[in-house]
Amino acid sequence: MPTRRTSQARPKGPSWRTRLTATLATLRKIGRWGLHVGLWLAFVAALVLVSQRVWLKLQAPVNGIEIAGSNRYVSAEDVEIVMASAIGESVWAVDLEAYRSELLANRWLIEARITRQWPDRLLVELSTHQPIARWDGDRLLSSAGVVFAPASQPAGLVLPQLSGPPGSQWAVWERYLSLRPVLQDVGLTLAGVERSPRGALTLKLASGAEIRAGRDALETRLQRLLDVYPDTLKGQMGRVQSIDLRYSNGFAVAWRDESTAEVSSREQQ
User: Fold this and answer.
1) Could you tell me the strand order of the sheet in which 121-128 lies?
2) d(CA 40, CA 52)
3) In what order do the strands lie in the sheet with 260-263?
4) Which CATH number belongs to the domain containing residue 193 in this structure?
5) Among residues 6, 136, 173, 261, which one has the fewest Cβ atoms lying within 10 Å of its Cβ?
């Protein structure tokens, strides 16, 4: 029998419209991807540019120093001398702690804080002791009750002179404050207070005279002097070397010419 051939139809491919649509879709995807890549590259470039400028700013040399808290004890000039070598250094590379330590070598300072101020300046903030009295000679007593010994003191610094055993500075200061107005009422100026290790007080007057008040019954003894002062010693304090209140019923006056005047009893406690 003769063999019959069966013809097979070729499968039809996608139409040109389908191919065009697919091509356009591919192009749109490529376009969106390219846009994203372009935007990302632009962002990176901007970030690099900004970072470069910031880095250059951070490397800017110190161009000035601002000082806050300077006074007659620590002047702006004192700080500028210490900080002078920071001018011209990279603001980011300045060793702030080293400069702070150097500033704190000045014993007038309680604290010194140094911070960077954008873009090329340093800020130095100072906290200083406020002296209220001299203590045991050349040392000073601060308003916080701290005894400190600065290397130098401003000219014309007039303070009361206090002294006493270690740790007694605040008690002696309070005693000075309580006695000063009492003496002022009769025209006497209290210049200082000295406390012995046993607690005995000696009051130092601006005239140079001393009042030896002892340890006990201070108010009673002092009142005894104040009651008669206007009629006995007022106007003569320039001649008085010391007044000794350590008597049961009176006091003794030592004159600068080394003579002694006794008022009431000689019985000393």
Assistant:
1) 64-68, 121-128, 109-117
2) 18
3) 147-148, 139-142, 131-135, 161-163, 190-195, 201-205, 210-214, 240-244, 251-255, 260-263
4) 3.40.50.11690
5) 6
The residue assigned the tokens 């002294």 is 163
Would you call 81 helix, strand, or coil by DSSP?
helix
Residue 65 burial (CB count, 10 A): 20
Tokens 């209290």 belong to residue: 190
Residue-number span of the structural domain to which 34 is assigned: 20-58
Give the H/E segment covering residue 101. helix 96-103
* 223-227-231-236 Cα dihedral, nearest 10 degrees: 10
**10 Å Cβ neighbour count for 111?**
12
| 80 and 202 belong to one structural domain | no
CA distance 111 to 102: 11
Looking at the DSSP bridge assignments, the partners of residue 111 are: 127
β-sheet bridge partners, residue 251? 263
Tens-digit pLDDT profile for the chain (269 aa)?
A: 455 555 555 555 566 566 656 666 676 666 666 666 666 666 666 565 555 555 545 668 999 999 999 999 999 999 999 999 999 999 888 999 999 999 999 999 999 999 999 889 999 999 999 999 999 988 999 999 999 999 999 999 999 999 999 999 999 999 999 999 999 999 999 999 999 999 999 999 999 999 999 988 889 999 999 999 999 999 999 999 999 999 888 899 999 876 555 554 344 44
Residue 8 is assigned to a structural domain of this protein: no
Residue 1 lies in a domain: no
